Amino acid sequence: MPEWTPKSASAVAATSLLSAAALYYSRTDPEGFTFDPLRLENQSHAHPTIPACRMSKIPDLYSASKKCFGFRSSLNTGFDTWFTYKQVLERVAHVGCGLRKLGLKPSNETLVGMFSKNRIEMMLTQLACYQHSMVIVPMYDTLGEDALIHIVNQTKMKVIICDNEDKIKNLLKWGHDQLPSVKTLVHMNSVSTDTVAAVESQSWTILSFETLENEGKNNPVELVPCKGSDLCVICYTSGTTGKPKGAMIEQNGLYRSARAGIANLVHVFGEEFSKDAVFLSYLPLAHIYEQILMAQMLMTGASVGFYSGDVMQLINDIILLQPTHFASVPRLLNRIYDMIINGVNQSRVKRWLFDKALEEKEKYYKRGIVTKATLWDRLVFRKIQAMLGGKVKVIVTGSAPIAPPILRFYRLAFGALVFEGYGQTENSSGASVTLVGETIGGEVGPPISCCMIKLVDVPEMNYFAAENVGEVCCKGVNVFKGYFKDEEKTREAIDDDGWLHSGDIGRWTERGTLKIVDRKKNIFKLSQGEYVAPEKIENVYTSCSLVAQCFVHGDSLQSTLVGIVVPDPATLPAFAQSELGLSTTSMEELCKHEEVKVAVMKAMAHSAKLFELKGFEQVKDIHLTADSFSVENNLLTPTFKLKRVQCQEKYRPIIDEMYRKLSQSQNRPRSAL
User: Fold this and answer.
1) Selecting from 3.40.50.620, 3.30.300.30, 3.10.50.30, 3.30.530.20, what CATH number does the domain 526-665 have?
2) Cβ atoms within 10 Å, residue 95
3) Which of these, 291, 296, 316, lies nearest to 75 by C-alpha position?
4) Are 434 and 428 in contact (CB under 8 A)?
5) Which regions of the chain carry the CATH code 3.30.300.30?
6) Cβ count near 272 (within 10 Å)
7) Is 463:505 a contact under the CB 8 Å cutoff?
8) Ordered strands of the 619-624 beta sheet
9) What is the DSSP letter of 238?
10) Mean pLDDT in residue range 549-562
11) Of 654, 35, 15, which is closest to residue 369 (Cα–Cα)?
């Protein structure tokens, strides 16, 4: 008989305690929040508790003590500086009067440039412009020099508000000769006396944002608030080819799209929706996606913290702010997921526990219970939840498709409601969104309340509306007014009956939800007549765990597709070591190994089979590169969309060589049987 020791007694006690806890949690519903079963009608009308007013009135809705905007005063602090809704309203009034003092007219013809990362000053300016019927034009430096010059000159903006000295130096490179409309630069951070002198040498005026506020405080004027039919923002789409186009978004479009997008949340949370809501603003406010998210937070009285401005600090920003509402894009969500799965796969025990935890939590979710308080949360998911601050209730994703298994992971592991939205800049980022309690991935929900959707035939791709599949077209108050000073492009986007043509191929499901299945834009024809939508294929291949990025190429002179593939540095080295016996962890070296290429192609073929790609939609050869596609090397737009023309130019010699080898292999005489 074994000796009884305190150590063995502790082990028995621990086992007994764990067993008792498991039994208790299996018989007791954990704390959390609940939702009713899916109801499509929840999407068809706005909830009455959402404030029915234009954005110019938003800061005046909430109590004096309610936190509105906050930020970290330095990288050594948390979110230690906050302004209440009352304080924001006062500052907005001062900024608006300050803009008027600069000579700007309270008119919808007045366009104010904002050249800044997400900051409180940016939102103060935006709300101030709304109170004086002005229009904001956000810009970002990754657009490139030619695009920035084009935007400034096309809008003839007189005032540009910049966050730092580098932005001002960028403008100085072109000066008055190339930017003749500019009269005044406003800076948020301090600038050197040399920079001030350089600005003045261009016959431009320069002043600080603080001075702008003080001038407005000392020179009050009457408000001229915007109307619902007024423009509120011109969002320049970066575009994959050509000059950027300025999408004109109206006040009603922004407001109604934002209001419709949160209807389901208010159905779940009711008046509690904004009680403790905290949101991190880090996606660029120059894009309509973040504009809509910001409008939703302000309309419901949430507290908004601005990230530190450094993407390397983003995780710290999230942890310090502890947001309840987190919005992202698939690119970031996929990276977090891959990092977690890579760690889980290091141990069979970890993998079993992880899969078991997801399975058990899914049982609660299907009963309408969203929670972070199960035994499995304590055992498995607590550290994972801490990556997003530990308090997230709502996760929103948009701008690109995301794989169903990843959506399931975020719903269950983070104990949150996860929504996938579908839209584009031209429909104020809102056409449809998944419903509360959605469990089926790969669909983007029914239309939101302010938007109608119809499908139209695309005969060249064999898609017909009579079969519930075709190009997605939208109509409603959320559809943009057109492209600024570009009637030709506007007519290409909106037909004579007012329908916006998205270029996406959608299918109505039996449940009445929309599923994006293909892409009409950027399609090309192979030599044997098949039409190919490369973006759809690239999305399939990047769902493969070994692939981080992919560029699929084909043209009418070739019968097959080839690809440029950036392997995932988070997964490839470990895979190469365990499966291929390669000791090197250098991505450059791994990309040169033929066996690595074969393994990546095999994994891509598995994804192609999983997503049912046709034979002609699958690449027949690939080239591996360790150089990521990025905004900096001009292969991605600022919204992380592939620049196809630039990719073709950069990799043309490699593409030609792949086709040469494929042609040789196809023409090689077969040996006699």
Assistant:
1) 3.30.300.30
2) 27
3) 316
4) no
5) 526-665
6) 11
7) yes
8) 547-553, 561-567, 619-624
9) -
10) 90
11) 35
Residues of the chain with CATH 3.40.50.12780: 55-298
Give mean pLDDT, residues 491-517: 92
pLDDT per position as a tens digit, 77-129: 889 999 998 899 999 999 999 999 999 999 999 999 999 999 999 999 999 99
Cα–Cα nearest to 338, from 543, 538, 602 = 543
Amino acid at 366: K
User: In which band, very low, low, confident or very high, does the pLDDT at 599 lie, cut at 50, 70 and 90?
Assistant: very high
Cα–Cα distances (Å) from 87 to 186, 188, 281, 314, in that order, read: 21, 18, 19, 27
In 3D, which of 118, 14, 35, 644 has the Cα closest to residue 393? 35
Helix runs in 183-299, H state only: 193-201, 209-218, 251-261, 263-269, 288-299
CB-CB neighbours of 333 under 10 Å: 20
Would you give the DSSP letter of residue 593?
-
Distance between CA 498 and CA 494 in Å, rounded? Answer: 6
- Report the phi/psi class of residue 390: left, alpha or beta, with left for phi > 0 and alpha for psi in -120 to 50: left
Residue 58 has pLDDT above 80, yes or no: no
The first and second tokens of residue 374, run together, are 């199960």
| Paired tokens of 217 | 């405080």
- Give the separation between CA 223 and CA 567, rounded to whole angstroms: 55
How large is the C-alpha radius of gyration of the chain? 27
What is the CATH architecture assignment of 55-298? Answer: 3-Layer(aba) Sandwich (3.40)
Helix then strand then coil, in percent of the chain rounded to 5, is 45, 20, 35
The per-residue pLDDT for 34 is 66
Residue labelled with tokens 């080898």: 661
Q: For residue 617, give Cα distances in angstroms to 457, 518, 523, 613.
A: 21, 12, 12, 6
Task: Find the Cα–Cα–Cα–Cα dihedral 245, 401, 393, 377, rounded to 10°.
Answer: -150
In the block, tokens 């492209």 appear at: 483
The first and second tokens of residue 585, run together, are: 């962890």
Residue type, 612: E
Q: Which tokens go with 571?
A: 């997964």
103 Rama sector, left if φ>0, alpha if ψ -120 to 50, beta otherwise = left
CA distances from 88 to 13, 95, 121, 128, 304 (A): 56, 10, 10, 10, 12
Residue labelled with tokens 């006699």 = 672
CA distance 659 to 653: 10
CA dist 585 and 598 (Å) reads 18
H helical segments located in 499-552? 534-541
Minimal CA–CA distance to 423: which of 244, 287, 241, 238?
287
- Tell me which residue has tokens 């939101």: 448
The long-range contacts involving 584-593, CB below 8 angstroms and separated by at least 24 positions, are: 587/626, 588/626, 590/624, 590/626, 591/567, 591/624, 591/625, 591/626, 592/624
CB 261 within 8 A of CB 300: no
Q: Which uninterrupted H or E stretch holds 439? A: none
How crowded is residue 162: how many other Cβ atoms within 10 Å of its Cβ? 25
Whether 19 has a pLDDT exceeding 60, the answer reads no
Q: What is the mean pLDDT of the chain?
A: 86
Q: Would you state the pLDDT for residue 670?
A: 45
Contact 98, 216 (CB under 8 A): yes
For 138-171, how does the pLDDT look when each residue is reduced to its tens digit (9 = 90+)?
Answer: 998 777 788 899 999 999 999 999 999 999 999 9
